[in-house]
Amino acid sequence: MTVTRPCHLGAPIERVDGLAKVRGEARYAYENTPDSAVYAVPVQATVARGEVTRVDVDAVLSSPGVIAAMWYANAPRLATGEDAEPAVLQSRRVAYRGQYVAAVIAATYEQAREAARTLHVEYTAEPHDVGLRDGHPGLYRPGSVNPGLPADTLKGDPEAALASAPVVVDETYRTPAEHHNPMEPHATVALWDGDGLTIYDSTQGTYATRDQIASLFGLPPGNVRVVSPYVGGGFGSKLSPHPHVVLAVLAAKQVGRPVKVAVTRHEMFAVTGYRTPTIQRVRLGAERDGRLVAITHDVVEQTSTVGEFAEQAAAPTRLMYAAPHRSTTHRLVRLDVPTPTWMRAPGEAPGMFALESAMDELAAACGVDPVELRLRNEPATEPESGLPFSSRGLVACLREGARRFGWHGRDPRPGTRRSGRLYTGTGVASSTYPVIRRRSRAEARAEPGGTFTVRVAAAEIGTGARTVLTQIAADTLGAPLTAVRVEVGDSALPLAPLAGGSMGTASWGTAVVRACEALKEELEARGGEVPPQGVEAAADTGEEIRAQEKYARHAFGAQFAEVTVDADTGETRVPRLLGVFAVGHVLNPRTARSQFVGGMTMGLSMALMEESVLDTEFGDYLNNDLAQYHIASCADVRDIDAVWVDEEDPHLNPMGSKGIGEIGIVGTAAAIANAVYHATGVRVRDLPITLDKLIR
Q1: Residue 136 within any structural domain of the chain
Q2: Among all residues, which ones are annotated catalytic?
């Protein structure tokens, strides 16, 4: 596969949709208001487990503006079983607090909200279990973990190797539940036209939403159209349709009119997914010089009673460092909670916090510099699969990061650098994320006036996908950027995979390149002449991806952090963050840096702030708004920088690129925690790093 360096790719092009966004011309899901549209507001369960026995529907039907009220007894039936998470209002059972148990449809949002607030629901409550704990009697081994990886792996005899290793680290690390809070809350507008259904939705994948809704309502997929040209962030929470989407379609079917549903910030903490809490035991056995002989990583996490989601937290341990003896395990327990889902760098973000914290502990135990320790354990091939790496830039990232950060000459002694009330420390951690490419289709069209239209059902979730695809198309066609228009965000467009897993640009971009190449060939065969009706070409990358060579494809990086900790209050600040990444060819430095810095800032949130606090008595999250669920902003990092090393990798895609949307968050929390240890001598193994954990 030949990787080219055309003129537009690699240039810091401004966003092609930037003006539309700042002028308010970009239309988001809830801003679509079809004629005669009405509003639905859900009613959420106030018990964590039990059964709905009665809903006083008649009492609200006389309220101003109310058109209908739905619950299990009168809602339209779906084509699936009763107890799956998306099977909204199909059962009396309550599986978690906050589950939708009814809905009110009214002429205005305010009328629907007031009627929903007063709708009386009676329950038979049952004892519930919502607390994740190690040793829970309900723990079980899932059949696989996201995205279809084996739950457990074993190589060699790690128990014997640990028993004989001169140096052993054996510690348990914990991460809390975390909730996505995209700028645009989830929203859906549903409109039936006979057996046809149009959905305006805030989604990271129009085809995924189309297919699931079609299945639920017993429709051919072609009868469902999902429109989503702009999405105000997702972080994984919009990868699959949540109950509000189903509710909007049900309500529209019930009343025979278009229905709008907007999920409030409070509701998002119950019905749009979250990152599972984890309990992770990591054991490292090493020679006295720090060379690993054994690695084990055992993960405990939760899922719900109505669905299973298994996060692959131990998966990065399978590829990071060389050790002849190794094992990883994942165990789940079904609790009376909502089903977890993908959240930025699922698996890698919490898993690498544990592994990279343990590596820092090993460096201290062996008296080896933390950067040098990682260099000494660099594998020649992917440790568990034995596959060659298509490219592996971790060593380059560590060395370049150490140079830029001023790491060399670092005093390794913890708790010895103090100026006034502030202790100072520095820490490092590695980053990784898999390189994934999925089948996609695209169409390219030449117009008589010398312009081009490229169509692919990609999702623009704020990352700059529309801009980068324009660059890819323009380079392939040899056309100026202003001559290319890219259409995305509609299931009526050619098939595209999700905007998640850092696979979007690689997947969509490959299809765009192939469609544009086919169009160029067609134009050349016509002598460059374009008839009035235009010239079209299409591409499907399924065969190309099935035929790609067997390589271990991963992006890598290194995170460096400096922290200060107040000796009296334990307040932790992060004056400096540096991320260095090896991600193939960077297609647009402007959008790339934005993604890296955003991920690193989210990693700072993970380290110091983010925690969904569960009330075990009521089975609900207490801090379910942005006043109490704290996230970092640019003001929380005084100096944050993201750079990348040159990396040529001919085994990826026509652009030579690796995904960058997720890797920025991976390792950041560990680098900060390791810096806190260096500053104070206190090792924090359970996130977030709050004041009480440092005042001892």
Answers
A1: no
A2: 662
